[in-house]
């Protein structure tokens, strides 16, 4: 029997490949697919961090849909069907961290929450005001770019070479508890460095069963996917595709 910890199954925006993400219905779809954690984005109504807090990825989306408020999302995720399901709250900008922490605390969900961000000062603020909350550093962060990071082959090689040491230093220094890297930058060296420093590694966003299996075999702590049904894809077919 393997001693490797069980892979944490994380639904991206709930289950964005099944039902439009960052919605209550998508959270329900993720729950039905058997996730361990639901990931969702939080953005303030205004760029300065003021106004209502919404569960939405970006301002273009906020202008186009009736996004749920953070309060509505937490009330839903705090209901009995979601007992035992953790939350990954991704902060898209700086300036509203303490209000998110207060909302999570008021909902009784702070102890079940993992907070991630690519904005370093947001993570510093969370650490300062809620030292017991698990936090993860999302990499790479390219302002204004969504989807797959635009990394050239040369830059990618350099980034992959430097990231293990930098991530391990930040974890050992107590600045973060986990690294949240795009799956393309996950290497054996990165996994060894992060786990060796006592941290966790959450790979995003993986929508291929074979790639999920490869990352699991590398020893990542968690995989974030738009389609949580992939976690239960037949392993023999996934292994043949690796």
């Amino acid at each position: 029997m393997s001693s490797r910890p069980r892979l944490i199954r994380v639904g991206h925006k709930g289950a964005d490949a099944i039902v439009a993400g960052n919605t209550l219905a998508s959270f329900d779809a993720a729950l039905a697919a058997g996730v361990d954690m639901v990931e969702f984005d939080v953005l303030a109504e205004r760029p300065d961090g003021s106004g209502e807090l919404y569960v939405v990825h970006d301002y273009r989306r906020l202008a186009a849909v009736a996004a749920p408020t953070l309060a509505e999302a937490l009330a839903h995720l705090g209901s009995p069907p979601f007992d035992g399901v953790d939350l990954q709250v991704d902060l898209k900008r700086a300036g509203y961290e303490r209000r998110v922490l207060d909302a999570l605390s008021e909902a009784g969900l702070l102890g079940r929450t993992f907070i991630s961000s690519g904005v370093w000062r947001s993570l510093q603020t969370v650490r300062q005001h809620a030292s017991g909350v698990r936090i993860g550093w999302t990499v790479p962060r390219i302002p204004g770019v969504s989807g797959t990071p635009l990394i050239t082959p040369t830059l990618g090689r350099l980034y992959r070479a430097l990231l293990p040491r930098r991530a391990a230093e930040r974890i050992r220094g107590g600045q973060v508890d986990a690294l949240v890297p795009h799956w393309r930058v996950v290497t054996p060296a990165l996994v060894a460095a992060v786990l060796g420093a006592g941290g966790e590694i959450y790979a995003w966003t993986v929508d291929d069963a074979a790639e999920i299996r490869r990352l699991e075999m590398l020893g990542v702590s968690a995989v974030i996917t738009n389609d949580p049904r992939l976690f239960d894809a037949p392993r023999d077919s996934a292994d043949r595709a690796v």
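Residues 153-172 form the longest helix (20 residues). The chain has one domain: 8-241.
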